[in-house]
Amino acid sequence: MRPSGRQLNEMREVSIETNVTKHAEGSCLIKMGDTHVLCTASLEARVPPFIKGSGLGWVTAEYGMLPRSTSSRMRREATSGKQGGRTVEIQRLIGRSLRAGVDRVALGERQITVDCDVIQADGGTRCASITGGWVALRLAVNKLLKAGDITSDPLISPVAAVSCGIYAGQPVLDLDYPEDSEAGVDGNFIMLANGQMIETQMSAEGATYSRAQMNELLDLAEKGVAELVAAQEAAVAA
Which ranges of the chain have pLDDT less than 50? Predict the structure, then answer.
């Protein structure tokens, strides 16, 4: 039995509220169970120096956790003068995951920065950030299309992510914190809407895993991503 009472292949409840901030070109508040992330997308008429003049656009991301997003207060990274290694790793993951679903030629020489701020954490914050980040990106690109700044849609596919793992010897979908903290195997799966994989992160956290178990987790991830893509598409169509 999972601590939440969910079935092994059952996602947490997912909700995506769009246009939650006044100024960002695209924004949403994504809730995956008790993990809540505010995602905003900001358009800029510039690109990083390393691709200037190439005709290519750029999508990048920043990630952060609010001090009381967890059970005890965390110190703001700004007060220490630098980001932690986990933060840097996650925001790079979000950026490259979102870029996998973008035609950068069609985007043209402009940058979209997706900011993901964790308001409340209960496991799977990077997956929620990627999933909500794509919604914010979609809304920002819609504004470019509506304004006629670009003529073809640069978003190739929705991008979504979900965690899976082996908890109490069983493969489970969409780990919350009690499961994540006790999982023998933990994995994050980022995919396009058609199931093509962008990135897979799997690690033994106390027990090794077999090829058959890896396949079971992949099957669960495909199911979870399909449900998340449906939620994404419903949110942007609203």
Answer: none
H or E segment at 30?
A: strand 26-32
Q: In the structure encoding, which two tokens stand for residue 113, read together? A: 């920065």
Asked whether residue 125 is marked as a ligand-binding residue, the answer is: yes
Tokens 């058959």 -> residue: 212
Residues 8, 173: Cα–Cα separation, whole Å = 6
Annotated binding-site residue? 87:
no
Helix boundaries (H) for the chain: 77-80, 85-99, 104-107, 125-147, 177-180, 211-237
CATH class of 14-237: alpha beta
Adjacent-strand bridge partners of 127 = none
Stated pTM of the model: 0.96
Q: Where are the domains of the chain?
A: 14-237
* H or E element that contains 161: strand 159-167
Q: List CB contacts of 158: < 8 A, sequence separation 6 or more.
A: 101, 134, 138, 192, 193, 229, 232, 233
Residue 126 marked ligand-binding: yes
Residue with structure tokens 């995506």? 16
State residue 190's pLDDT score: 98
Neighbouring residues of 153: CB distance < 8 A, sequence distance ≥ 6: 106, 141, 145
* Residues 132, 10: Cα–Cα separation, whole Å: 19
Query: Which residue do the tokens 């947490």 mark?
Result: 12
68 among annotated binding-site residues: no
